[in-house]
Design goal:
A hairpin with a 6-residue loop joins strand 9 and strand 10. The longest helix has about 45 residues. Strands 4, 5, 6, 8 and 11 form a 5-stranded antiparallel sheet that branches. A 5-stranded antiparallel sheet has the order 14-15-16-17-18. It is an alpha+beta fold.
Length: about 900
Amino acid sequence: MALVKEIMGSSSHVLDRSSPFITSSSKILGLNKNLLFYPTNGKRFCVSCVEKGDSQNKKVGRTSPISAISDKIGRIVPEKPVKFKVRAVVTVKNKNKEDFKETIVKQLDAFTDKIGRNVVLELVSSDTDPRTGTPKKSKEAVLQDWSKKYNVKAERVNYTAEFMVDSNFGRPGAILVTNKHQKEFFMESIIVEGFACGPVHFPCDSWVQSKKDHPGKRVFFSNQPYLPSETPEGLKALREKELGDLRGDGKGIRKLSDRIYDYDVYNDLGNPDKGIEFVRPTLGGSKRPFPRRCRTGRRPTDTDMHAESRVEKPLPVYVPRDEQFEESKQNTFSASRLKAVLHNLLPSLMASISSNNHNFKGFGHIDSLYSEGLLLKLGLHDDLLQKLPLPYVVSRIQESSQGNLLKYDTPKIISKDKFAWLRDDEFARQALAGINPVSIEKLEVFPPVGNLDHKIFGPQESALKEEHIAGNLNGMTLQQALKENKLFIIDYHDIYLPFLDRINALDGRKAYATRTIFFLTSVGTLKPIAIELSLPANGPDSQSKRVVTPPVDATSNWMWQLAKAHVCSNDAGVHQLANHWLRTHASMEPFILSAHRQLSAMHPIYKLLEPHMRYTLVINGIARQTLISADGVIESCFTPGRYCMEISASAYKTWRFDLEGLPADLIRRGMAVQDPTKPHGLRLLIEDYPYAADGLLIWDAIENWVRTYVERYYTESSTICNDKELQAWYTESINVGHADLRHESWWPKLATPEDLTSILTTLIWLASAQHAALNFGQYPYGGYVPNRPPLMRRLIPDEKDPEYVSFLADPQKYFFASISSLLQSTKYMAVVDMLSTHSGDEEYIGERSQPSTWSGDPEMVHAFYRFSAEIGRIEKEIEQRNSNPKLKNRCGAGVLPYELLAPSSEPGVTCRGVPNSVSI
């Protein structure tokens, strides 16, 4: 010890027997680089954690106080390593409400925990034992006081476990967990304290299954990121094994407790065992290309070996266990779904009693949904409600709706101006700032030209002529208007026309393939100047196309309103089936599946993507079960009916990942041109285009954050190319997840840091801002059905039609007989209300769980806080824009502010907020 005093200056700087980190039986015979020291600055550190530490420390040039120790110490070797004690603090998340069975099992686990059926932890070092070549492991330690704390009502409960390790153990890199209880539990995090390198964090956020269900040990890695080539020796085998477990073997029926990620086609939308009317084609494959979904492995149906048998609600559809909703999210979702059930139950009862209730009787009839609620509107009294076998359901809904049982909230579209939806300027404004602002394009040629095969679909010439629009060009010629970028179009001709014969043959479904021409005014607003309505040509002399222009009298006014309703119905279908479901939900699923299968939890790119994958697989599974399935909500409420998902698959044929980023999409649609003098390198052709203007702010923030992150770990292209996990993730996402388009030449390469930045920015954009812009305005804009009728039941009559007389006699009645019925409307309203609702546990862009410890790289933690601050700045800028009277598409009398890309939100239907992921 005299030598130590001479070198260190004081014996107080060396841990002796009195230290809590050394056992009483330990005998210090000398010093070794694996011992713990207190340097002269008073900070405790472990030389093994500094010298062996990890290659990441060396790579990024982090420094440690190793110079405080003389080189002479390294020559003093102990006879055996010193043992010391470390402690793990395990945070377990409780359920707020448990059913009777769960309570009984929990009590049983508390009892059996005392007799050895407990939770066991084992520390794994980043180092290997030089004698055996295997990872160094601690002895097993039991989670303490489970039996004493099992009944604690707090949401989070901390348990401890103590490990005895040698001084040459090295840095802990993983923890193995064995659950010998009967019941699974949710492990949120583990913090290991007592190592000289400081607390080591293990983010878990996972259900730990009982050993009887899953005999293997669960592995959780520390928050220290490692590229595959830099994985410490002690963790390499665990890294590979964990990925292998997540991939599974592609066989068997998945149990709800499984954590296996695999692919399948959409062969589960129909139910042929129920009858021919429930048969739906498989999506995915050469005939109907489509992204792949999460495999469940269910058995085939009895009548079709290629169709997967269905699991009908309320039974859950399989998704990997950790992908399922957490309790607060599930409660919000369940309450909304129960509310939707009741909203639909009562009009269904009344519709069955009296056929007079099938259609809305007038605009006041619709208004009563918000002012009186369904109970009063339908004349249902309390005694009838009490007779319904739903007392528990009703009480839950009453609690969640503050007593306004079955009363719809007033949609924002009519909250500021009840008649705004009737105006042409509002109809056009919503093309730039509504729920589907991604369909409008610059008109390149006039008349517009379709790309369908004329041999199959007949002549493709448009019926639009110059005389239809000449009077609405503010004195310009057609060529001037085109040259000066004054004409824009929403063109649904090609996506709808191939399906119209089949749609219009359905009972109560009628549709056109529409084109709408807009003129850009001098104040930056749009006005619609012509609508083309097309039907399939049934012969050379067939009058299959007609053009409707702005009204000049009462009759043409109602014709114009009906034409706009058909455009909105087309728009609602394309929005839901192509832009919303396909481009955000379905196209993201393969990238998420592949990330879990190919990227280790310790991979830095996995850590970056993790918050943007939350809940997507489960919400997609629920959608396949109830929304996009045969006779589901989408088929019931949208004009294409049983052909809805075939339209979605048709749209996938022209989907391109390289054009899904915001700048590329704006350029593709002709809504922007490259201009290096502008803040985002783009010049918008319509300066007051709220979706694009706000979106570019968020796009740039995401891109800058991702670039900073990527450049931290990939300083050169060779590192990208040699990262086997990264390359496997991207390759599998394309070749398996998007197998039907895998040979397309437009797929971006992944060879440089810039490539990776672009790919990741696009994915994060789609999961967060793009989905938010397309989703959270569904009820605020669509909850007033006349504004955006999702379903049309009649074509527009002309003078030769028998219905023309009834149209002239009562045009309002004809209008309500054309749009969704009472039952269809209330069902749609209830569902989009649910889909527009933020849950209380939502994580918004710029936020993430455990913001200070999600990564063990402090530089990236600080970079994330800078990203978060930038998102806060963007929110303030959006607020300022919404108060700027010069921006007439977001500010003015009765004009809704554009807040769909405002990053934050309160829970509920707010028409704002950008969650990190596709979570609803």
